Automatic annotation (TrEMBL):
This is Cupredoxin. One of its GO terms (molecular function) is oxidoreductase activity. Keywords: Metal-binding, Oxidoreductase. InterPro entries: Cu-oxidase-like_N (IPR011707), Cu-oxidase_C (IPR011706), Cu-oxidase_fam (IPR045087), Cu_oxidase_Cu_BS (IPR002355), Cupredoxin (IPR008972). Residues 20-127, 348-458 form the Plastocyanin-like domain. It holds the Pfam family Cu-oxidase_2.
C-alpha cells in the first residue's frame, strides 16, 4: 500500500482465519486482511495519512516501529484505540530510506496480538538512496521476508502461552512461518536479489545463512543503508531487528535460507529445547539437522534475468550520524526481578520483570530528556540476553561488553542485542509529552508485557 498525502489510507484491525497449511484454518488477527498487514510504502519528505480502525473486542494501538515521529503519533501503550474506535494520523516522514514495521503495542497484550497477526512491514523510500544500483522491483528482486515461529494444536489452531516459564524466557514455537506461510518457497530472477529480513518472532533469535555456505552481502540494518556492502556468511537477528541482504544468483543455482537453533540462555544453563526447554515453555523447537533448521527455499528462474547484476561498492544515501558530543550518560539495567516476581512465573503466573529495579507503570515517567541533546546510554542485562528497543529515534551502537563496534558493520539501529553490557549513542529530535511518552523496553514481547519497559518524555 503506497501511503501518501491523500486521505483514505485505512488499516483495519480485524479477526480472521488463515490457512497456514492446506485444509486447516486457524483463528488469527490482521490489518485489513486475515493475517499480518499490507506492506506500507512511504516517501521521505511527504506526509503519510493513515486511519487505524479497531474492529476487535479488545483495545489495540498502531505503533510505527522505527519511525521518527512525535510521541502522540508513536502508537505506544498510552495511545489505545478502543473497540469500535479509529485514530487518524498524519505522519511527516523525514528520515533515510529503510525497512521498518508496524504492530499493535497495548501493555500486557502486545505478545498475544503480534503473535496472532497484528503486524506488517513498512518501507521508507528516498530519492537520495542508491537508485538503480540496488534491486527495487518489489516482490520480484526486492522481497520482504517476515520471519516468525509458531506453535499449533493438533487441530491446527494457533497455540500461545504468555504466562509461567514461557513468559520468563519468551514464547517460542516449533514451526517457522515466512510471510504467513509454512514451508515457504520463492522464485527469483537470475542475478542479484534483495531480501528484506524482519524478525517478527516474539522471542526467537535467528542466525541466518545458506545451506550451501554461500556468501552474501548485508546492505542495510534496522534504520537504513550501511555505508558499503558487508560480506557475510551468517547474520544474527534478534526479535524486531531488520536487515537487508543482497544474494547473487547469477549462476542459476537456487538455495535454502536456514538458521541455527539458538537456545535460550538463562541462569547459566541452556533452555531452548528438550526436557528443560519444555519446562521453561520453550517447546521442542523446529526440526533441525546438526542444529540448523529450514527457513525458505529459493528457486532461480533462468528465463528471467535480474535487473541488477553488479554489486555496488558504496551505498549512496546511507545515514551517517552527526550527533556531536554527549552531554550525559544514563544507565539501564534489564532485571529479571528475583524473588516473588520470579516465583509467580515459576508457578504458572506472569512474572514481574523490570528495568532499574522497577516494573512498568503507565502512570510513572521514568526519564526526562531534552530535545536535541546527545546522550550515551549504557544497557546491562542480568540472567539472560535481551533485545533493547528505543522508540522515536535511531541510535549508534558504540560498544558491546567494552569492545568498540564498527559503525560500518552495524549502521543505525533501533534495537540492540544486549548480552551483558552495551553502550549506544542516542539523540531525540521529536517531542514526547507526559500524556504520550516514548518507550524503551525489551523486545522479547513476553518480557515487555511482564513489565520490562520504561517510558520517557522529550521536551
Amino acid at each position: 500500500m503506497d501511503v501518501g498525502d491523500e486521505a483514505g489510507n485505512r488499516l483495519e484491525a480485524i479477526p480472521g482465519t488463515h490457512r497456514f497449511t492446506e485444509g486447516i484454518a486457524a483463528r488469527t488477527l490482521g490489518w485489513s486482511q486475515d493475517y499480518l498487514g499490507p506492506t506500507l510504502r512511504m516517501r521521505r519528505g511527504r506526509t503519510a495519512r493513515l486511519t487505524a480502525q479497531n474492529h476487535l473486542d479488545s483495545a489495540i494501538t498502531a505503533h510505527w516501529h522505527g519511525l521518527h515521529v512525535p510521541g502522540r503519533q508513536d502508537g505506544g501503550p498510552q495511545s489505545l484505540i478502543a473497540p469500535g474506535q479509529k485514530l487518524e494520523q498524519a505522519l511527516d516522514i523525514d528520515q533515510p530510506a529503510g525497512t521498518f514495521w508496524y504492530h499493535s503495542h497495548p501493555h500486557g497484550r502486545t505478545g498475544d496480538q503480534v503473535y496472532r497477526g497484528l503486524a506488517g512491514m513498512l518501507l521508507i523510500e528516498d530519492d537520495d538512496t542508491a537508485s538503480g544500483a540496488l534491486p527495487s522491483d518489489y516482490g520480484v528482486d526486492d522481497i520482504p521476508l517476515i520471519v516468525q515461529d509458531k506453535a499449533f494444536t493438533r487441530r491446527g489452531a494457533l497455540e500461545y502461552d504468555d504466562g509461567g516459564m514461557a513468559a520468563m524466557q519468551g514464547f517460542r514455537g516449533d514451526r517457522i512461518v515466512v510471510n504467513g506461510a509454512l514451508d515457504p518457497a520463492v522464485r527469483v530472477p537470475q542475478g542479484l536479489v534483495r531480501f528484506r529480513l524482519l524478525n517478527a518472532s516474539n522471542s526467537r533469535v535467528y542466525v541466518f545463512s545458506f545451506d550451501d555456505d554461500r556468501r552474501f552481502h548485508q546492505i542495510a540494518s534496522d534504520a537504513g543503508l550501511l555505508p558499503a556492502p558487508v560480506p557475510r556468511k551468517q547474520l544474527q537477528l534478534a526479535p524486531a531487528e531488520r536487515a537487508e541482504i543482497l544474494v547473487d544468483f547469477s549462476d542459476g543455482a537456487g538455495g535454502r535460507l536456514v538458521s541455527q537453533d539458538v537456545p535460550v540462555q538463562m541462569m547459566g544453563g541452556m533452555m531452548g529445547g528438550g526436557m528443560m526447554g519444555g519446562m521453561m515453555g520453550g517447546g521442542s523447537g523446529p526440526d533441525t539437522r546438526n542444529g540448523v533448521f529450514r527457513v525458505l527455499d529459493i528457486e532461480v528462474d533462468r528465463s528471467r534475468p535480474a535487473a541488477v547484476t553488479t554489486l555496488p561498492r558504496e551505498l549512496r544515501g546511507a545515514h551517517l550520524p552527526t550527533y556531536g558530543e554527549p552531554v550525559r550518560r544514563r544507565r539501564f539495567q534489564l532485571n529479571m526481578m528475583m524473588g516473588m516476581g520470579m516465583m509467580r512465573g515459576m508457578f504458572g503466573g506472569r512474572p514481574k520483570l523490570g528495568i532499574n529495579g522497577q516494573s512498568y507503570d503507565m502512570g510513572r515517567i521514568d526519564q526526562q530528556l531534552r530535545l536535541g541533546e546527545t546522550e550515551i546510554w549504557e544497557i546491562t542485562a542480568d540472567m539472560m540476553s535481551h533485545p533493547f528497543h528505543v522508540h522515536g529515534t535511531s541510535f549508534q551502537v558504540l560498544s558491546r561488553n567494552g569492545r568498540p563496534v564498527e559503525f560500518g558493520e552495524t549502521g543505525m539501529k533501533d534495537v540492540v542485542w544486549v548480552e551483558n553490557s552495551t553502550e549506544i549513542l542516542v539523540r531525540f529530535d521529536q517531542p514526547a509529552s507526559v500524556e504520550a511518552p516514548f518507550m524503551y523496553h525489551c523486545h522479547i514481547l513476553e518480557h515487555e508485557d511482564s513489565g520490562m519497559m520504561g517510558q520517557f518524555t522529550v521536551s
